[in-house]
Amino acid sequence: MGFFDKLKQGLTKTKTSFNEKINDVFSNFRKVDEEFLEELEEMLIMSDIGVDTSVKIINQLRERMKKEKIEEEEQVKQVLREEMQNILEIKDKELHLSTKPSIIMVIGVNGVGKTTSIGKIANRLAKEGKKVVVAAADTFRAAAVEQLEIWAKRAGAEIVKREEGVDPASVVFDAMKITKEMNADVLIVDTAGRLHNKKYLMDELNKIQKVINKEMPEADKEVLLVIDGTTGQNAISQVKAFKQEADITGLILTKLDGTAKGGVVIGIVEENQIPVKFIGVGEQIDDMEIFHAEDFVKAII
Ligand code: GDP
Ligand code: GDP
Ligand code: MG
């Protein structure tokens, strides 16, 4: 299956739900007027795009209606596509990993898909010919280390691990040393996730960041926040909470294959101005795509 077909398949539920809602609005369509715009706005909000972002899109549509004489259903759809794409097109979509070594830290709440995403990214980078090391800095459960080990094996990456319960920052410290000794290209750090225990988690993240900045001050660093796409609007508050504590450089949106709430991407990007770098569309090692705004929008409308 080609790149775009796979993306479309992953986003089937979002697309179906979007199309049903859009068709509902257009089934009563007579002309583009205030009543119609209101219905369309409600439709966008129901599609998890978020209130503020939906209002913005409709305001744009209203403006363009006046200037461009938008009258037909297909024209309205095209404007929606363009406005969504505009929101999603923000800079720095690529990973910045130009130094050797460079480092990626992956953060987020429990169960969002951090470890799985690390496996997928490690695999991607290995395929590009990079030597990858992963650090098992989720030392909270022994099972977390075992899970990362399985992914590392699949991706052909080296793993640095220690016993359960040790200070995660010390695992990262060891991993940086080993990465340099091995002359590896990229170190990817897995972390434990707990939002309810926020203070502890954030102190731990700060400590890891401090150790990284001390030992690899010159290195390119990515801090990727993983968000579970099935959580809808709650995802927006997670980004807000983590943004206050960590220098997030990008988002990974996972589980878009299992949800009709893929529209949430648009609200998240618009409200935070942080680029989505990858989207997860399944549990297999290849089920991750670099985020392309145009393809994404085409796949849902
Ligand atoms: P972590 O706690 O953040 O490290 O999350 P895990 O990587 O352990 O993933 C939690 C669950 O989500 C696992 O069952 C994964 O297989 C599943 N998962 C992760 N990413 C995706 C995805 O893109 N699509 C689907 N359907 N499942 C995913
Ligand atoms: P502290 O632990 O609160 O004193 O904070 P530091 O910034 O001094 O170190 C943070 C963590 O990095 C420490 O807790 C260690 O786990 C780890 N670390 C720092 N220096 C070393 C080192 O020389 N060797 C090892 N193995 N770990 C280190
Ligand atoms: Mg994990």
What does this molecule look like?
This protein is α/β, with parallel strands linked by helices. It is 52% helix and 14% strand. It is built from twelve helices and eight strands. The chain has an eight-stranded mixed β-sheet with strand order 3-2-4-1-5-6-7-8, with helices on both faces. Strand 7 (276-280) and strand 8 form a beta hairpin. Helix 4 (51-68) crosses helix 5, helix 5 (73-88) packs antiparallel against helix 12 and helix 8 (168-181) runs parallel beside helix 9 (198-215). It is elongated. The mean pLDDT is 92. One guanosine-5'-diphosphate is lined by residues 108, 110-116, 193, 226, 254-255, 257-258, 280-283, 287.
Structural class: alpha/beta
Ligand identities: guanosine-5'-diphosphate, magnesium ion
Spatial separation of the terminal alpha carbons:
20 Å
What is the percent of helical residues?
40-55%
Task: Give the overall form.
Answer: elongated
Q: How many helices does DSSP assign?
A: 12
Question: In terms of per-residue confidence, which ranges show pLDDT below 50 for 5 or more consecutive residues?
Answer: none
Largest sheet geometry: 8 strands, mixed
Give a count of the beta strands, DSSP E runs of length 2 or more.
Answer: 8
Strand portion: 5-15%
Return the average pLDDT rounded to an integer. Answer: 92
User: H/E element string?
Assistant: HHHHHEHEHEHEHEHEHEEH
Strand order in space, largest sheet:
3-2-4-1-5-6-7-8
Rg, nearest Å: 21 Å
